[in-house]
Amino acid sequence: MEGADEFMKYRSPLVSRYASKEMAYNFSDRKKFTTWRKLWIYLAKAEKALGLPITDAQILEMESHEVDIDFAMAAEEERKLRHDVMAHVHTFAHCCPTAAPIIHLGATSCYVGDNTDLIMLRDGFDLLLPKLARVIDRLANFAEKHADLPTLGFTHYQPAQLTTVGKRACLWLQDLAMDARNLQRARDDLRFRGVKGTTGTQASFLQLFQGDHDKVEELDRMVTEMAAFKKAYLVTGQTYSRKVDVDCVASLASLGATVHKICTDIRLLANLKEIEEPFEKEQIGSSAMPYKRNPMRAERCCSLARHLVALMADPLQTASVQWLERTLDDSANRRISLPESFLTADIILSTLQNITEGLVVYPKVIERHIRHELPFMATENIIMAMVKAGGNRQDCHEKIRVLSQEAAAVVKQEGGDNDLLARVQRDPYFAPILGQLDAILDPKTFIGRAPQQVARFLSEEVRPLLEPYKAKMDVKIELEL
Asked: Model-level pTM?
């Protein structure tokens, strides 16, 4: 049956199940090998412009066959030659007989291999950055909307002083803003390997241009410009330094850590029923428990984020074992670790955009949790009010301590509600401040400057970060579940 053998072999879920078609294409064979051909055309054009005997007809022939790659022939050539670059040189030469003598002239395999990798890394960042900007935008809107909605803060996952739902979202946003700067820096720091020759000395090109150093420099500059890079690395071995890969993957792994933290928080809040990720009308949470609404999107993000963080070890180790001008033990590892880093980051951001566009808040549940804990948190305010009314701080502290212990026993040992407030109201000692209790226990008096912090943070740090991506903000994510 046509295509049935497709189910007889492993397919990476990153492509078959998760990543966008744009990112999957960025690391595809078609993108890779058409880029190789583009690079051979750039090289020939620059060499011709600098005086080598290359004709317009040869250039035109190469350009007319830039995309019509015979993948079957290339595979057969590689099987015979055991060399991927030479297999594609032969395949290109087969459809460009006139240009055959000058294809790959003076170059080493890494001219196409490494330069293509750098193009894919750059283009990968260009796909991720607008996605990250959209996540930041959605979360910023959420933070603004809920800037002054009081909620229990947690330290050690124990109830602590109040914060607001919007302020908590700003903690997530701050990390994402750092990631946006890290990704942009890694992208902008990328340079081109350029035209450097077999061990990076440009010896073959110096020979082609009969010792003319200026022409070799100009060749490097021209090809770098054609590939839309502003700079090339001034020194390389046979390859560009594998620390470049470390920088790129480090920014993605750091993003993975951020997303894992955000989505873990969402999962914890879902358990408290305070916040939920979007849930489709017909979505099933559990095959056995019909009432369940599992945070499966956040769980997916956490699951993939762990993989993204773990991938950081690959480029670090690869960079550390590159002997002298290069060894080939980087190649097989990089074929897996570099695309997987970008593919994983891609689906994480798509999923997080979907989550942040549909986060559901349950203010009544949040309010109930506050009511349960606030009497304990308000004890200091009650003491201050009593002192202002003429009471003795130490006497009041002892009264409150005893009543708090009794109320805590009802909560912990009997499973009852926190009745500290009722105990205070019943005790004649607190008669002078009974009229102030509602004001003392207003949650909005416990959130400090959270709303003001949200407003300033969004206006000074978040919105300016999004300016370059305004035109790409409206893209919606169709999430495959």
From this structure: 0.91
